[in-house]
Amino acid sequence: MADLTAPRSELTLRGIGLGVLITLVFTAAQVYLGLKVGLTFATSIPAAVISMALLRAFKTSTIQENNIVQTIASAAGTLSSVIFVLPGLLMIGWWSNVPFLPTFGACAVGGILGVMYTIPLRRALVTNSPLPYPEGVAAAEVLKVGTGSREGAAEGKAGLAAVSMGAIASALFGALAAMKVFAAEVAGYFKAGAGATGLGASSSLALMGAGHLMGITVGIAMFTGLFIAWAILVPILTVATPMPGADAATHALKVWSTQVRFLGAGVIGAAAIWTLAKLIGPILAGLKSALEAAKQRKSGGEALPRVEQDLPIGIVGLVTLVLMAPAGWFLAHFLAGGPIASLIVPLVAIGIGYLIVAGLLAAAVCGYMAGLIGSSNSPVSGIAILTVLGASLMVGVASRGMIGPDITKALIAYALYVTTCVLAVAVVANDNLQDLKTGQLVDATPWKQQVGLIIGVISGAIVIPFVLELLNRSNGFAGAPNLHAISDQPLAAPQATLISTLAKGVLGGDLNWTLLGVGALIGLALVAVDAILRKTSKGRFSLPALGVGLAIYLPSTVTAPVVIGAVAGWLYEKIVNKDRAAEPAKRLGILIASGFIVGESLFNVSLALLIVTTGKGEPLALPFAPSEHIGMLLSLVAAAITVVGLYRWARKAAAKTVEA
């Protein structure tokens, strides 16, 4: 049995350095992906593979050190979710650029609080919990395989190659699209009687990779959402909203953006509230268990084994208390000099109180959801929706009697900023418990992981403002004035559009409650279908209502490739299931998909830098590019060859790791 008190190489300078480097790269990728798609991906597994491949050169490296690297890097996959709210400040015209200090402050303070709030929950929700933690267990398995044997060494090398090849392939794909050799989008719209409909799909390996990582269940849910939106709602509502003289594409897209999206938002809201309501009982039980465990340890006085040592609760309380000072300063700084500066004291008090109460609730809920369904699939969108509605209502109450467009805009901006802080708490809490589960399975020291995640939070908080501002200057965001944008192709930022629309609707009094209400009824019907499916199939099948809602709300250009990627990943796993090296083959498939996301996202961040540097909206476009139809065909053929070819390579490489 392993000695659980002995010191070992774990929180090292080289591990911290490597973790920070991976965090910086993956955060840039995640920010771009989230702004384009409205979804992010878990970075723990690709970070663990990269760490194992690079640290294997050091004889003193351990599985615990590799675990610290993935813990630090996992911050990239979580903290970048603040971009679901922050671009809203540009969309409403409050910011014209992304200032470093307020953005860093919201990310850093909220993220560190997310770590602190979940430390007392570790024993109840991780150590003594039956929750499955699918992503945490998967990351632990990758670490064990990669560190423990010759086959693991071979798989570690193959894994690094898989991430690299996926990244290179998707970066090249993105480059050819930027050169206009490939069409950026494959689409077709047509008249349906007096109405119109159609479908579009981005030529994106990154989106296909995201689909693979999300899995077939989410893929089917998104396909259902696509069907509801484009085969039912758009045809019906285009008939009800005639646009004489408009072509099919203009008619269908206008109705979708002004009506169907709000129905999708209602579905997301209803699904999120239902999910949270189901978790209240288990969360309260978990908190009670955590408090009882703390009392027992205090009264017992026995020395805790290394694998049970958290940051001391006194330090947790002190850090939480101390962080309220910078939190208050950032909130006050955000309001200073604006039209509601006279309300600084009550609004800052509301903001801090909301950060404490809503932050604690969000941390507990997200921590439990991470254990239940994994951090990638947690309904963070729902948390953001509920948070912005609560923040908007409280800010509105505090400012009763004050009227005017400038005052309303300032109140909306403040509600969005407070929501950003709470969302940072929620997403990091979501990640912390997932990482601690991985640590439990590889005999890691909890307090060292908690320190590692704080380092990752600070690293991500530093890079997020720079990447956001770069993309603001190169592309801008849909619906924003985009005063400094060079390209005429703004990023969709779908989640930020929804969150800012809700804040504007509550505080401006013009929210379309009818469409949201109908969407919520659709959401409740989908929740019922999901419950029936789960019960009749004994848990084998489900239809997550949140996934359906997202596909109604997001553009089809985003969701269609995700569905294709989910189906492709499912087919690949079905095929390799028959192999002796099935598990390594599945892991390599996941790493190729991760590489797709990283490569295309980093290319597009680099392209944004090139756009800003050259001052040209399409700096790589070739003058002799093929026609759009030829470009569509080329992109489809190239995508199919690339995906099939890399899956075949992964299957062969997995077989070699077993033979090694």
How is this fold's topology laid out?
Layout: H1 13-37, H2 44-55, H3 63-79, H4 88-91, H5 100-118, H6 122-127, H7 134-148, H8 150-178, E1 185-192, E2 195-202, H9 205-214, H10 216-240, H11 248-300, H12 313-335, H13 344-373, H14 380-398, H15 405-441, H16 446-474, H17 494-508, H18 513-536, H19 545-553, H20 556-576, H21 582-614, H22 628-659
Antiparallel strand pairs: 1-2
Helix pairs in contact: 1-3, 1-16, 1-21, 2-3, 2-7, 2-8, 3-15, 3-16, 5-12, 5-13, 5-15, 5-16, 7-8, 7-15, 8-21, 8-22, 9-20, 9-21, 10-11, 10-19, 10-20, 11-13, 11-14, 11-18, 11-19, 12-13, 13-14, 13-15, 14-15, 14-17, 15-16, 15-17, 16-21, 18-19, 20-21, 21-22
Overview of this protein structure:
With 660 residues, the protein is mostly helical. Helix content is 74%, strand content 2%. The chain has helices spanning 13-37, 44-55, 63-79, 88-91, 100-118, 122-127, 134-148, 150-178, 205-214, 216-240, 248-300, 313-335, 344-373, 380-398, 405-441, 446-474, 494-508, 513-536, 545-553, 556-576, 582-614, 628-659, and strands spanning 185-192, 195-202. A two-stranded antiparallel ribbon has the order 1-2. Strand 1 (185-192) and strand 2 form a beta hairpin. Helix 9 (205-214) packs across helix 20. The longest helix is centred in the middle third of the chain and has 53 residues, at 248-300. It is globular and about 75 Å long. The model is unreliable at 1-7 (pLDDT under 50).
